[in-house]
Structures are given as C-alpha cells and as structure tokens.
Amino acid sequence: MKRTTIALCTLLSAGLGAAQAETVAPTAIAFEEGAVAQSLTGVAGNAEEGAKVVSAKSQGNCVACHEITDLADVPFHGEVGPMLDGAGDRWSEAELRGILVDAKMTFDESMMPSFYKTEGFIRLGKAYTGKAHEGDVEPLLSAQQIEDVVAYLMTLKD
Ligand code: HEC
Fold it and tell me: What are the residue boundaries of the Cytochrome c domain, all occurrences included (predicted)?
C-alpha cells in the first residue's frame, strides 16, 4: 500500500514537472457543438506570436484564404474564406479554438484545413508525391500555436 502511494506520488510529480503534461493531444479534444472550451496547453496564448503563425506561409498561412486588414502588409490575401476582421466579436474564444482545431466540426465539408488533427482523414497523401503517408501524422500547428492564434483572433474586434 505504502509503496503504491510513493510510486504514485513520484509519477504525479514527474508528470507535473514536465511542461508537456498539460498539453491536450489531438486525439483527446472535447468538442461541444464545434467549440473547444479547454485550453490545449493551459498556457495563455500570445497574440503577437499568433499573428506570425497566421501570416507565415510555412505555418498557418491563413492569409492564403482569408483577408485581414490588420495584416494588410502581408502579401497574398486570398478570398476563399470570409474576411477575419471582427472575428473576435463574432466568435467566442472556445468557438475559435474549435474552428482552428477542426473546422469541419463547425462548418460541414469546409475547405479549411483542420490544424490540430491527426486521425480520421479519409485518405492521407504524402505531401504532393501521390504516395500514401507513412508513419505518425503531426498536426499542422502545435497546441501552443493554436492558443497563440486564438489569442490573436480575439484581438480582431470591429
Ligand atoms: C484553404 C483555405 C483556408 C485556410 C488556409 C484557412 N481557412 Fe479559415 N475558413 C475557410 C473557409 C472557406 C471558411 C468559411 C467556413 C466554411 O468552410 O464554410 C473559413 C472560416 C474561418 C473562420 C470563421 C469565419 C468567420 O465567419 O468569422 C475563422 C475564424 C477562420 N476560418 C480562421 C482561420 C485561421 C486562423 C486560419 C489559419 C490558421 C485559417 N482560417 C485558414 C478557409 C480557409
């Protein structure tokens, strides 16, 4: 009994010590009508970092599909999706997190990529090679990048 308790305590404190411990895995997300209330990391998002992810081609590349007046100096604003000005007024933080994690939970058949999803793809290709994907699937954005982007979107008020 005592040994079990000690082992448990050691396990717990080891877990709490690791920064990763609070990160919610892509396969463990709890959706409620498309929204995700719980932070993916427990660490508040950084809006400035979020703006970088939104602009960067190699990361979110949101501007390929969305126009954002606040980022007017970033080239290549697309019009596939709606303009994101005022997104922080239209949506709650939980709704925005849900849209980012898996847009298809909010918009049926959305063209918007699911940025924090590693399972349930119908047929996953190996980027542009025409071959099947091999090995583990990494989400397009990390849990903290999702939180940063949510924080940035919350600053977009009308
Ligand atoms: C391939 C194009 C594409 C990309 C890339 C994309 N989106 Fe979208 N997004 C859409 C479309 C299309 C919609 C409209 C919903 C639908 O699918 O009907 C949408 C909807 C949204 C909405 C809700 C719009 C509203 O009414 O306010 C938000 C917020 C959003 N996207 C944020 C993002 C962010 C942040 C990124 C980058 C991390 C991103 N999107 C990347 C296509 C895209």
Answer: 45-157
Instruction: Give the position, in ligand 1's atom list, of the atom nearest the Cα of 64.
Output: 5
| CATH number of the domain bearing residue 123 | 1.10.760.10
Contact (CB, 8 A) for 153 and 96: yes
DSSP E strand boundaries for 83-150:
125-126, 131-132
The one-letter amino acid at 33:
E
Ligand 1 pocket, residue 113 CB under 6 Å: yes
From CA 66, how far away is CA 110, in angstroms rounded? 14
Ligand 1 pocket residue status of 83, Cβ below 6 Å:
no
pTM beyond 0.70: yes
Q: Is 18 a domain residue? A: no
| pLDDT tens digits along 91-135 | 999 999 999 999 999 999 999 999 999 987 766 666 667 777 777
